[in-house]
Amino acid sequence: MDLTTAAELYRKYADDLAAVREEQRRRLPGIRAQLDDIEAELTYLRLRELRPETVVEIGTFHGWSTTWLLSALRDNRSGRLLSYDVVDHVVRSVPEDLAGQRWTFTRGDVRKTQLPGNIDYLFLDAAHSASFARWYIGALFGRLSGTPVSVHDVFHGRRPMPFSEGAVLVRWLAEQKIDYFTPSVKRAPETFAALLAVKRELGLDEPIRTGRDNPMVFFDLA
């Protein structure tokens, strides 16, 4: 993922994205949303392009990210989503027609759960502590190769908060020489502005949510 690729994905899937944006807009009053618009849209677009068969989502809360992920799998007409969280608010937020046979939710501490051996896309938005980051770097990243990953709440500022999940993750990515992409308005204001311009060009610029941080990072494991 880079800016050129992101812009191309917006253009390639503009019509489908427009439809999903309207669906999500209608869902928003009933869901306590976490993702901002651009990071949610890029997540949808990345899944559309990569067409993963097994997506793992760690951290669902009220299901805003879950519905974006499921919308991509529905529109791909393939793939399954396995979601994990210690709370089950999400089960009241995801409509049955979207969940279908493509979604499984497991309540509990994911660190004590047996995850699938093959993960084609990993979405992380759970405990934002340094210890949780160290867990998934050791327990998950170490056994995955080439897997695309999204991690939320990394860049609410120009740098991650000290002693946070983001600080541990960004340091590890640097050590592994793995590049990442972020639409964060604080970390990458030029990227954020360029994506807003693409959305404006395509008529996709009316906000769904008021949040503009877009602190997510996207990368592929080595």
Give a written overview of the molecule.
- The chain is α/β, with parallel strands linked by helices.
- The chain has a single domain (3-108, 115-220), classed as Rossmann fold.
- Helices cover 41% and strands 13% of the residues.
- The chain has helices at residues 3-12, 14-27, 37-50, 64-76, 96-99, 130-139, 165-176, 189-201; strands spanning 54-58, 80-85, 103-107, 121-124, 148-151, 217-220.
- Helix 6 (130-139) links the parallel strand 4 (121-124) and strand 5 (148-151).
- Helix 1 (3-12) runs parallel beside helix 8 and helix 3 packs parallel to helix 4 (64-76).
- The longest helix is centred in the N-terminal third of the chain and has 14 residues, at 14-27.
- The two termini are 14 Å apart.
- The mean pLDDT is 97.
